[in-house]
Structure formats: structure tokens, C-alpha cells
Please model this.
Amino acid sequence: MADQSSTLVRNLSDAQEQHAAPHPDITTAIVYRLYTEDRFNLGSLTARYFPGATLFFGDGLWKGEYEKSATIEIIGTIADYQSVVFLAGDIKTCNDQSAVLITKHRVDTFAV
Model:
């Protein structure tokens, strides 16, 4: 058991050194987040515009009232801006909401 443990620690240490090295494949992307109420099938609506996204579900607070909320996160490019706005408009209409909040942030991305 001790040999397995020391081998695991050695392998993890080697992996950490590799991951700490500068990554030549770093690219700049835009992370878009849409904040909305969870009322409609947001996954299928999002898939109309984007082949991939992450949906987070939870409880939110809007104008003092609790509601089921959702955040849609899309990692894309500046060229995706108009599609994000169209998606937010569709969500706003389907959910009968007064607004859907959009944020965007530049990030560096790389795969490990």
C-alpha cells in the first residue's frame, strides 16, 4: 500500500509540473452569461444557437421575490455577440420576462 501511495504522489507531482509549464495553446475567448428565470426548456432553446453551453440552476431573487433561476454560460468569440442577444430575446419572450441580463468577459482559455 505504501508503494502505491508513493507512486501516486510521484505521478501527481510530475503532472503538476507539466501543467504549471506555460501553455502555447492559450487563446482568448469571450464568456457570455445570461441570467434568467428557469421557466422554459432553456437547453433546447440554447441549442438552436450554440452547439455547447453550461446551464446552472438555482434559486434567485428578483424585486424581492424568490424564483427558480438559471444562468447560461457560453464560451465563444466576439462574433457570437449577436447570437447571444438573439438567444436572450427568445428567452425573454418565452419566459414573459421584462429583461434577461447578459454579461461578457474576456478570458484566456487552454485545455489540460
